Amino acid sequence: MTYITISEKQTLKLGEKIACQLKGGEVLALIGELGTGKTVITKGIARFLGIKKYITSPTFVLMKLYKIQNSKLKIKNFLHIDAYRLNSGRDLLDIGLEDWFNRPDTVIVIEWAERVKDILPKKIIKVNLKIGKKNNERIIKVEFRK
Amino acid sequence: MIILSIETSCDETAVSLIEIKSGKNGEIFNILSNEVFSQIKIHQKYGGIVPEVAARAHLEKIMPVLEKALEPIKNKWQKIDLIAATQGPGLITSLLVGWQAAKTLSWFYKKPLVPVNHLAGHICAGWLNKGFTPTLRSRGSDRNPDGTVGGCVGEFKINFPLLALIVSGGHTELVLMKNHNQYKILGQTVDDAAGECFDKVAKILNIGYPGGPAISKEAAKFHVPCSKFHFPRPMIKSDDLNFSFAGLKTAALYKWNELNYGAQYKKLDKKEIKKTIHASVTENLIPFFCYEAQQAIIDVLIAKTLKAAKIFQPRSIILCGGVAANQELRRQMTAAILKNFPYIKFIIPSFEFCTDNAAMIAAAGYFKYQKMNARQKTKLKNNWQNLEPDPQLEL
């Protein structure tokens, strides 16, 4: 499914829309250049899951964990990963990412996922982001791979 | 009291030994040793810190750095009263090495272990100012008598409430302290940290890592503001005290592409872009581009600090963290505070205490220890058994 958004607000909304289909245990792979809106999508997802803390960039620490306190949701953990600085997925295994894969109470979002292809599970939700021709336009392709 | 401190939250292996005495204006921190091994050179080729590489380098260096730091007391452990170590926030693989070393030493030599928050350390670096002889500086000048920028305006005593701006590669936070160990976060970045923005802009321009020093070096070649283009000052007029730097990076990226490839760049594919790149434009443009990017970051940092000072009326302000080593930021922040709040004391730690170091961890550990009651103090002996590092530790 391909979406075209024309503002940051719309991209955020799209994030929320993606999030409402999540059941837990998913890995979202966000692929796109600098400034295409990966973090904005992530913020939208986090907002839908009821995370009130600021979703700040995990570029520096690579991985940030947010606890979800919503008794209506099965999803309890939201893991935000940024592979911007990495050349392979090994670095993510070093900081303990493996423990979080295949957990039905956890949703994982990986920015710059193309850099850590080697460790991605088979079942992922692929989100491709591109800058459109007009200002602030973004072309966003969402693929559910099963 | 003598404190041994260990800091390995990121890419610096640091161990320090500090003697604390009481003086007329509060504590005097006598720095016996302040050893830092920086891994910047190791990480340069990767354009950033690689966790596994950092952990290995920490492991290699922790013992030699520790031994060097212990030289002033000739390895006489009975002289050490307390061990302070960074518990977080930071990179977990790096934190583990220093924390494990601290735990082992605490268990083996039966010394109390105080866990310290890295950000508290950055703020407490203010008390270490210029070691134990702070440079006094006449008002109105932004330089110390020795020509360096930094130090302290007015007599050296930090009064509460203290407003702290912590800026580094991983943090941009405004913190209010009503007293020691009382931290209230007034504002923070909602996306990227200021130092991260420096790194990312440097990466767009391809001028090297770490981005902060690379950008300020280029920016220094350019002195006159130019009217060609301006970057946005994100959130500079927002009602809160939060920061945002992700949009600035995006604006820089757009502008850079447009300047190099013309307004048509969006329609070109990558191969065509490489063909049309204009070498002479690039060369002349980099200093100006860096100047403008740096100025945008500095403007926002200053505006929000002044705003916080106006609302909370602190008696002291401190600028700290790795980005506080930026000369232009030091100069402009000093000028802005002297102009708007001449009655507020303004402190910038000297360079060696802005970037990551262990001495600041000792200072923060000391203040934490001072506020503890006897029961809490005895419990510190068992910390090696039950405390783990926390990469997301909050202030």
Write the layout of secondary structure elements.
The complex is a heterodimer of chains A (146) and B (395).
Chain A: E1 2-5, H1 8-19, E2 27-31, H2 38-48, E3 63-67, E4 77-82, H3 90-94, E5 106-111, E6 125-131, E7 138-144
Parallel strand pairs in A: 2-5, 2-6, 4-5
Antiparallel strand pairs in A: 1-7, 3-4, 6-7
Helix pairs in contact in A: 1-2
Chain B: E1 2-7, E2 12-23, E3 26-38, H1 40-44, H2 51-70, E4 82-88, H3 92-109, E5 113-117, H4 118-124, E6 136-137, E7 151-153, E8 162-167, E9 172-177, E10 183-188, H5 194-205, H6 211-219, H7 246-261, H8 270-276, H9 279-312, E11 316-320, H10 327-340, E12 345-348, H11 351-354, H12 359-370, H13 374-379, H14 383-386
Parallel strand pairs in B: 1-4, 4-5, 6-7, 8-11, 11-12
Antiparallel strand pairs in B: 1-2, 2-3, 7-12, 8-9, 9-10
Helix pairs in contact in B: 2-3, 4-12, 5-6, 5-7, 5-9, 6-9, 7-9
Question: What attributes does this structure have?
Answer:
heterodimer; A: 146 residues; alpha/beta; Rossmann fold; 7-stranded mixed β-sheet; B: 395 residues; Nucleotidyltransferase, domain 5; 5-stranded mixed β-sheet; 14 helices; 43% helix; globular
Can you walk me through this structure?
Chain A has 3 helices and 7 strands, in the order βαβαββαβββ. Chain A is of the alpha/beta class and 146 residues long. Chain A has a 7-stranded mixed sheet with strand order 1-7-6-2-5-4-3. The longest helix of chain A is centred in the N-terminal third of the chain and has 12 residues, at 8-19. The two termini of chain A are 15 Å apart. Chain B contains 14 helices and 12 strands. Chain B has helices at residues 40-44, 51-70, 92-109, 118-124, 194-205, 211-219, 246-261, 270-276, 279-312, 327-340, 351-354, 359-370, 374-379, 383-386; strands spanning 2-7, 12-23, 26-38, 82-88, 113-117, 136-137, 151-153, 162-167, 172-177, 183-188, 316-320, 345-348. In chain B, the strands form 2 sheets. Chain B has a 7-stranded mixed sheet with strand order 6-7-12-11-8-9-10, with helices on both faces. A 5-stranded mixed sheet of chain B has the order 3-2-1-4-5, with helices on both faces. In chain B, helix 4 (118-124) packs across helix 12 (359-370) and helix 7 packs antiparallel against helix 9 (279-312). Chain B is globular and about 65 Å long.
